[in-house]
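To fix ideas, we reproduce below a protein record of this kind.
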Amino acid sequence: MTNFLRKYRSFVSAGIEEAIVYRANFLLFALGNTLGAFVTYFLWKAVFQSSTNSSLNGFTFPEMVLYIFLSFFTGILTSSDGSSSVGDEVKDGSIAMRILKPISFTANYFYEEIGSKLIDVGVLAVPLFGGILIYQIVGTGTPVLNLGNLLLYFFSATVAYLINFYFNICFSFTAFFFRNLWGSNVLKNALVIFMSGSLVPLAFFPPVLQNVLKVLPFSSLLYTPVMLYLGKYSMQQTISVLLLQIFWLIFFIFLAKIIWHFAIKHLSIQGG
């Protein structure tokens, strides 16, 4: 265990240093997303004000406010940039240095990302998640703060991050074949945002599409943790969605190993 920690500690440290060096980029990114969350808030406020019903598709307005800002926070917790990192390194040839290191290629990226995520989440956890908790405690008509739901949320969000990490690693291996992932990354991110319930809760989709999206891995990235926090699932549904998350995690871990086996044979180093 000590050897394991010593081996990967330097990668965590590298991730922390990178996050500190490029903290301005992260803060600008977070500011942009925060503004997006407020725009979404005012849009949903207008929708509820124009409706004669106090709830829409099972959401009251206070619950929708929690969903909006909690989905933003969850997006930061579960985000993974593996596909962009691998794609850039394949394009400039620096991927060779990672492959030559006598450690797991996937673990290399994972522990670097953990380091940067510690800084990112640490910066936003207190003001953002603290604000969500305060709103839930003092707000009128908000769901009662439930410790069990809170623990389920963090467990689910952790599994969601791992799913997203391995999904992006699987996607990144296509760079070994196509060399440049910029365009496909933009398309992939747009589809994930749509299918994860980030823009609109899946409960607002037509029943057939909703049922399809709920079993795909993308709902596990954001919709599932947020709905667990809001207490929208029964005990049976909770067990079902958590098992589905674990299934997708195991699926992408094995898929990453399989794709790596074939992708490494097609890698052509570019750049200097």
Summary: Residues 19 and 120 are 7 Å apart (CA to CA).
